[in-house]
Specification:
With about 325 residues, the protein is of the alpha+beta class. The protein has eight helices and 18 strands.
Length: about 325
């Protein structure tokens, strides 16, 4: 079995019309992780292949849940709020801590939500249909075992239940659904249209290129972030700024992260509009964040963006206008 396994990702789209050929899952608002369990213990890799086992010690529960098995699982590390909803903001407190102390693990617990099985006891399952992989996963009987969950998928052919599930995600302000074709194989590292993200709101990654000083209670710190993306020629362009969605605690942490990245000149390849460039503090474009937004203007600016958090599972060079076109279609 090759290691690490780069996860397969979904294209954004609408609910499929031929629902009977599809399974539906909740879209979990966390970070992707592929976990390998063997006689040697546990390994876990993030989206970019980096080791995350020490970052999320809760995943070690898989060793006890799968005695005698060699398996590779695909899933999402999720933190939940007090109402039981996935909270990407809450997960931020864990995402960037390589070795969390017991107090942080207790204060911000995470769960590993498993939704695919890629390898089992000597057999690579990449060409096995999704429905069969899910049946094998269910047969392992690891659901509800401590910090591990294996939520079932919904039959996409039941129109009434599909409508109820979609309405539930909107009422609970969840990100949406994932539709997966029942006969689909697993193709590591590829974005495929037989997995579809059906979103309740638009999100995308952005490159952090600088900040505007805060005013009022934010004076002396970060007021808003200046955002960018790369085009097909590798040029870094301005896509707007975001000043909402931050907690005071995160703004303090963000200031500490950004301060060492300061640079005297703009990292953008083209001039930034004067109202945004005035008083801006530029930084090296090393950080990737995620925003929610309503739409994009004709000149590519994000309308009404709201900050969701930093992502350390993305390389800034992956944040491109082409990638955005795929995820925003």
């Amino acid at each position: 079995m090759p290691w690490p396994v780069e996860p397969m990702t979904a294209a954004t789209g609408d609910l499929p019309g031929d629902g009977a050929r599809w399974g539906l899952e909740l879209k979990w608002d966390g970070v992707r992780a592929v976990a390998q369990v063997s006689a040697d213990g546990l390994r876990a890799a993030g989206r970019r292949g980096g080791d995350v086992a020490s970052r999320y010690p809760e995943l070690s529960a898989l060793v006890d849940l799968l005695p005698g098995h060699d398996a590779v699982l695909d899933g999402e590390v999720v933190a939940f709020d007090r109402r039981g909803r996935p909270s990407f903001e809450r997960l931020q407190r864990r995402m960037h801590v390589a070795h969390p102390d017991p107090r942080l693990v207790r204060d911000v617990p995470v769960r590993y939500v498993v939704f695919d099985l890629l390898y089992l006891d000597g057999y690579i399952l990449f060409d096995t249909p999704y429905a069969d992989r899910r049946a094998l996963l269910s047969g392992l009987d690891i659901a509800g075992g401590g910090p591990v969950e294996v939520p079932p998928y919904l039959d996409g052919g039941d129109a009434e239940q599909v409508a109820e599930l979609l309405a539930f995600t909107r009422e609970q302000h969840l990100e949406g659904l994932l539709a997966k074709r029942l006969d689909s194989p697993y193709r590591p590292g590829r974005r495929v249209d037989y997995w579809r993200k059906v979103k309740n709101f638009l999100t995308r990654e952005v490159v952090v290129c600088g900040w505007k000083p805060g005013k009022g209670r934010r004076e002396g710190g970060v007021g808003s972030l200046l955002l960018g993306e790369y085009d097909g020629k590798g040029r870094l362009g301005f896509v707007g700024h975001v000043g909402t969605g931050f907690s005071d605690r995160f703004l303090d942490e963000l200031y500490e992260i950004l301060w060492p990245l300061r640079r005297p000149t703009s990292p953008y390849d083209d001039p930034v509009p004067r109202e945004f460039a005035r008083d801006a503090q530029w930084v090296e474009p090393n950080l990737v964040g995620e925003v929610a937004y309503s739409a994009r203007t004709r000149d590519g600016r994000l309308r009404f963006p709201s900050w969701r958090g930093l992502r350390d599972d993305k390389d800034p060079r992956e944040v491109t206008s082409e990638q955005g076109a795929v995820s925003e279609q």
